[in-house]
């Protein structure tokens, strides 16, 4: 195998789309499945997802949320019980019409989302106030017909995600849950993936179908497009009434419950690739990296067994004792240079190089992936490596925030808006709150309201489109 077989052949700035696809495939995060629109997660890709799942599970558990499982098939009759919700998803639904050679009576949908199925069951499980709040999270796959313009992790016909569904006795309690979950999402994405997000509400036009309102977190990608990173919805009683999710209060008076739903998907992995990757390949934040430290022994012939490898094993054990994920590259027939390039493309946060001369000096060479800096550490300084990884995590978020800031513009003149939207970015622009202006802006520029940041209400500016009194300052952007 030669370097050209595995190296990234285009630049991030030159051909962003092709660069992204090459990183996904050549860093071995995922591959295409035989069916169009589907991908296969490889071990490194799945490991990142497992890391996120573990973090979310711990935070959900502290919030009284437990995990459950739902089947993938949903009868059409259930999907139709909430008409607006069903109409919104119907164009994307895969249908099962046959069981073997027999036609099924009620068509079965391959789950696009689980509200209708979950709430049919919730109506059976909830009888009185003692059963509330009910908080369940489901780690599922979802299927939505995405055949055109598919992109690994970002837009596929099947994707991994979590979807939470909670039931409460009061409106106030449900709305607090919506915000708790959004805060969990924001903290996790920024702390684990080192990606800055902006939180707020969706407009009425862009909210989740069937929700009273949708809160969201949005990020700007290096190509200037926005990416929705997660959503948390206040459903009110829009589902509890048609699905009869009711409870008897302490006075035995029956009430319809108040509900929320929320979710993030493996789209987060796609965002991580885009935000941090470079022309060499993947750059992984240490907290989610499947391998945090790779050790590359450098030796000839018998130098390995007698000198280098025993020291490598000693260093590996010391690092593993500090709960670090460590791998030793002992592949034969490959040069150190090839191995360095390979691990850089795979994004491993730290690489340790050690050979006989390093051992003579009682030191190792440590290469940082995120900025390609090399430093020398003495054997007694190896204990600093966990701190170095923590510093890398902080620096990656800092750098991503700086890049996001560069891609965020204050824009109040519509002519300027139209001329600059081609280059992409987050545009903070005043809006009157009218659907007509929102639709016209999207029709004429391709930009939509991605998020109305919390506390963005404004009464001193004019709508960027109609010049009437503004209601808020949303972020407009073209998105994935």
From TrEMBL:
It is found in: Cytoplasm. Its EC number is 6.1.1.15. GO terms for biological process: prolyl-tRNA aminoacylation. InterPro entries: aa-tRNA-synt_IIb, aa-tRNA-synth_II, aa-tRNA-synth_II/BPL/LPL, Anticodon-bd, Anticodon-bd_dom_sf, Pro-tRNA-ligase_IIa, Pro-tRNA-ligase_IIa_arc-type, Pro-tRNA_ligase_II_C. One of its GO terms (cellular component) is aminoacyl-tRNA synthetase multienzyme complex. It is an enzyme of class 6 (ligase). Keywords: Aminoacyl-tRNA synthetase, ATP-binding, Cytoplasm, Ligase, Nucleotide-binding, Protein biosynthesis. The keyword Protein biosynthesis applies. It catalyses: tRNA(Pro) + L-proline + ATP = L-prolyl-tRNA(Pro) + AMP + diphosphate. Its main location: cytoplasm. Consists of three domains: the N-terminal catalytic domain, the anticodon-binding domain and the C-terminal extension. Catalyzes the attachment of proline to tRNA(Pro) in a two-step reaction: proline is first activated by ATP to form Pro-AMP and then transferred to the acceptor end of tRNA(Pro). Homodimer. This is Proline--tRNA ligase. It comes from Candidatus Nitrosopumilus sediminis. The lineage of its organism: Archaea, Nitrososphaerota, Nitrososphaeria, Nitrosopumilales, Nitrosopumilaceae. The gene is proS.
